[in-house]
């Protein structure tokens, strides 16, 4: 804590006071109704939606994990950070169906498209994913930041993070979450941008960084022989995870559902897509800088349990060791913003999922106040389970971001397949979707379980446990599609009334007209610019660019 000066603490305290003020205002504004608590009364504009989407996505696991993966593996995992084009798919393809259906949750949408069994299953899968891939990762990364930046003991930092974030989230609902997230997103971006420029100056500029970092690690398209990130695997697996995460995951889509109309929701996703381009530069590039500075002896990084350099500490170490006095408080505020924003989105998503998709189905007579109270309790349970899971994370990967993508690769494929084909292929029925989700979920869970204990396995089980997570993601996605299509074709097709307005083929004329009126040429141009930027980055970090 001694490296924070007086000016740093002033920045930090002022920031916390602003967040506290917004939280109190949101709590007072809350009406304790499900629509207000879970969806902010469906009355938010595009800029709040966009900023909140980014803040929900970019949490401490990105700051810690992405910089860490860049330091150890280079730019390859930047594929996941260039998913702005998938955010556009959310806005242009899925938002019209979600907004018209007036649902609270993604499982509720599956019930409308298929049946109640699909809804219950997705609820369980998503809650599990929040325990092992969101709550646990966020709390771990947050505690690490508390330890590195403020000198707080790991588990003490974890508890502080959970309690402080829980106060305004549990009592303020989505209103409190989204408005605080909007502020936190900009604080985080500004603070991280400052660190990027300070780091570049320290290393000698952009060209010096590109020349001194290993060329093979600058390549985002690794050879097929690469044991971790072969280009074929990451090129196809990362979009599968991306579609699941950006287009079907509750804590992201919930922000769109809170929009006042389809136009505001879509423009929120376009704004979020632009913001999503920034993490590649302000979180990943600092990891490259940390590698070079550490190699030069200008940055000290700790060792992990295996005696190897712990690049998970790269970002916080740079804040501590190279940021000028006075700016550290800004970065500390940005890091705290990420901690609270990402965990707050987990809180609210868990609360919504359990309450609306499980509890309300079990107890349909429950009143509004009871639903809100149950949502608050459910949040606490998921977070506690996430903390219990933390010791298991190191069994899968020593790098936080790689762990996150591995776990998501085991859970995402069947869900991505069901949602994607569900809106494009009207012949898909409930039996096909449910069977694919069950089979896919079981196979993914088996892979995850075996990987935890792979060192004790041999033969076929060991071979299965050690399949590259990227290839496994592709295999599971294709297998889920085959199962879903085959079962659907062998069983009766869904009725036209059931799927009315829920697929492209069954969208009624008035909905098509309304959807067309919600966008203009500027929306299209802004979307195409994003795609052009992404293609340019891919070319630059390839053998055609700096990775020669």
Low-pLDDT residue intervals, each spanning 5 or more residues: 33-40
> Helical percent range?
over 70%
Proportion of residues in extended strands: under 5%
Structural class: mainly alpha
CATH topology: Sodium/glucose cotransporter
Q: Report the CATH architecture.
A: Up-down Bundle
| N-to-C order of helices and strands | HHHHHHHHHHHHHHHHHHHHHHHH
Q: CATH H-level name... which superfamily?
A: Sodium/glucose cotransporter
Would you write up a description of this structure?
This protein has 548 residues and is an all-alpha fold. It has a single domain, classed as Sodium/glucose cotransporter. Helix content is 75%, strand content 0%. It is built from 24 helices and no strands. Helix 19 packs parallel to helix 22. The protein is globular, with a radius of gyration of 23 Å. The chain starts with 5 loop residues before the first helix and ends in an 8-residue tail after the last helix. About 1% of the residues have low confidence.
Main features:
548 residues, mainly alpha, Sodium/glucose cotransporter
Task: Please provide a brief summary of the model.
With 548 residues, the chain is mainly alpha-helical.
Task: Show the helix and strand layout.
Layout lengths: L5 H24 L4 H6 L6 H12 L2 H14 L4 H4 L2 H18 L4 H8 L2 H35 L3 H50 L2 H7 L2 H4 L12 H18 L1 H8 L4 H15 L1 H18 L18 H9 L5 H35 L5 H22 L10 H25 L5 H23 L6 H7 L3 H22 L18 H8 L4 H20 L8
Helix pairs in contact: 1-9, 1-17, 3-9, 3-13, 3-14, 3-17, 4-8, 4-15, 4-19, 6-12, 6-14, 7-8, 8-9, 8-17, 8-18, 8-19, 8-20, 9-15, 9-17, 9-18, 12-19, 12-22, 13-17, 14-24, 17-18, 19-20, 19-22, 20-21, 20-22
């Amino acid at each position: 804590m001694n490296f924070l000066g007086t000016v740093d603490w002033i920045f930090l305290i002022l920031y916390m006071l602003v967040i506290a003020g917004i939280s109190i205002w949101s709590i007072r504004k809350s009406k304790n109704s499900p629509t207000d608590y879970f969806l902010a009364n469906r009355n938010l504009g595009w800029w709040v939606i966009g900023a909140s989407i980014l803040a929900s996505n970019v949490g401490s696991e990105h700051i810690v994990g992405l910089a860490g993966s860049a330091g150890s593996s280079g730019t390859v995992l930047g594929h996941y950070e260039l998913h702005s084009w998938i955010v556009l798919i959310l806005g242009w393809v899925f938002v019209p169906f979600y907004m018209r259906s007036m649902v609270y949750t993604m499982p509720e949408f599956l019930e409308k498209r298929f049946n109640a069994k699909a809804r219950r299953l997705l609820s369980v899968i998503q809650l599990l994913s929040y325990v092992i891939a969101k709550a646990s990762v966020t709390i771990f990364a947050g505690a690490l930041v508390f330890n590195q930046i403020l000198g707080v003991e790991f588990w003490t930092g974890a508890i502080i993070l959970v309690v402080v974030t829980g106060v305004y989230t549990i009592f303020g609902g989505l209103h409190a979450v989204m408005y605080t997230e909007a502020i936190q997103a900009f604080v985080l971006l500004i603070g991280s941008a400052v660190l990027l420029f300070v780091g570049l100056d320290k290393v000698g500029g952009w060209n010096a960084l590109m020349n001194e970092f290993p060329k093979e690690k600058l390549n985002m398209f690794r050879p097929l022989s690469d044991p971790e990130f072969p280009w074929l695997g990451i090129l196809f697996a990362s979009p599968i995870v991306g579609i699941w995460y950006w287009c079907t995951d509750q804590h992201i889509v919930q922000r769109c559902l809170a929009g006042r109309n389809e136009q505001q929701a879509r423009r929120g996703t376009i704004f979020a897509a632009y913001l999503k381009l920034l993490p590649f530069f302000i979180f990943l590039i600092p990891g490259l800088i940390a590698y070079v500075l550490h190699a030069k002896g200008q940055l000290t990084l700790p060792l992990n349990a295996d005696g190897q350099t712990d690049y998970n500490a790269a970002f916080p170490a740079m804040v501590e060791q190279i940021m000028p006095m006075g700016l550290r408080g800004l970065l500390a505020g940005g890091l705290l913003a990420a901690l609270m924003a990402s965990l707050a989105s987990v809180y609210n998503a868990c609360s919504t999922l359990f309450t609306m998709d499980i509890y309300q189905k079990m107890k349909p007579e429950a009143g509004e106040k009871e639903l809100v109270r149950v949502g608050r309790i459910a949040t606490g349970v998921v977070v506690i389970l996430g903390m219990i899971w933390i010791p298991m994370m190191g069994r899968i990967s020593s790098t936080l971001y790689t762990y996150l993508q591995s776990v998501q690769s085991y859970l995402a494929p069947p869900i991505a397949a069901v949602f994607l084909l569900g809106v494009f292929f009207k012949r898909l029925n409930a039996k096909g979707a449910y069977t694919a989700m069950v089979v896919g979920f079981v196979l993914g869970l088996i892979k995850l379980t075996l990987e935890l204990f792979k060192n004790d396995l041999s033969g076929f089980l060991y071979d299965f446990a050690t399949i590259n997570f990227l290839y496994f993601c592709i295999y599971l996605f294709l297998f889920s599609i085959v199962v879903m299509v085959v079962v659907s074709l062998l069983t009766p097709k869904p009725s036209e009334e059931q799927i009315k307005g829920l697929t492209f083929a069954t969208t009624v004329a008035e909905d098509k007209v309304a959807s067309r009126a919600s966008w203009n040429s500027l929306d299209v141009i802004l979307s195409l610019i994003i795609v052009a930027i992404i293609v340019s980055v891919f070319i630059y970090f390839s053998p055609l660019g700096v990775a020669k």
